[in-house]
Amino acid sequence: MADTPDYAQVQPNRRSKRSRRTTLTAAVASGVAVAAIVTVTISVLSKPETSSAGSGTASVSSARASAPEPIENLWPAAVHEVPAKLPDGRKVRPRLMVDATKVLLTAEAGFEKANGLYTYDVNSGEVAKLADITLPAGTTLFPDGFTAGQGRVAWWTARGAADKRTADIWTVPTTGGKPQLVTSAPLPPASSAGFVTGIAITPDRLAWSAGNEGVFTVDINGGQPQPVDGTQGQHILNWPWVGSPGTFGGNEAPFQSVMNIETGEKRARTALKPGSPVACGITLCVTHLDRSAAAQVQGRDGRTRHEMDVTGVAPQPLQQDRFLSAQLPDRAIVHDVRSGVSAEIRGIDTRTRYRAPAGSNIALFSRGDKFVVVDLTAIH
Questions:
Q1: Where are the alpha helices (DSSP H) in the chain?
Q2: Is 21 among the domain residues?
């Protein structure tokens, strides 16, 4: 990636931003550690209507997707250019939207070794330091799983090696301060979805899913972690929804089955028509039809909503229960499954690709000496 100028040299986007939809009341389970990955993703999508990722309700009209439009024209309030370096020259990585105007950045001491938290204001271009990230002795798995909610940022690290690792779960106020070690717990062996596969912040508790052991919670101010009954093999999608398989489940579409921890409601893929699911959320799944380039957007009730082209598709979570991202040889595309609108991003660095966990509230791409951050919560 090319070096970037200091923040002072970057002209910030000064367009007024639309008011954002409030994220989940209970939490923002973004688990947004975006990891560089070489993979091929989606191409063109279609047309549903309103839905809430938290409510789990959706009704979608049948229509073909329109051709992609430039993202700056289609969703001007949602797309932001963020410099790839701090003024002191350290590389940064966007992790998530903390609120309507601030992007959470991690300063990188090395590959995936975050040692500081910052925010970048998309209106003013100002950068502010939230905290230094210090690591306990013996840390072998570095800061990951960044999540925001209830006025806090959370992440995890781990100490030890092989099957004797201990996970440390941390938080810091979004206004800045000293990170608090909320709890430590034995870290199960990694599942195909990873070690800690999702984190959520609720008003009074912190929750996370680990390996194939299910979901655990602890008092937000610290204490002894408690397992959540009936969640073995489940991973956090968007709190209180969990499911399987997890976000990085190999060739399978993640979250083909989901469950609401608070109500006990379950939604399996049994209602879906034959084919290979490539993306699932709380209310919708995208299913690739065998021996065809076409795919269907289906409700969890099995009703087909519309078809779409899935050239180059790879399994991925349905972010915010409505968005899919594709990175093609000459461009990136972000598809809104509910509205049937697709946005294209030209000039991206096709050598670097980012994949976000299911609860992520951004889509991330590299372009020149900057990042392109798409705030998915700003798209209405």
A1: 71-74
A2: no
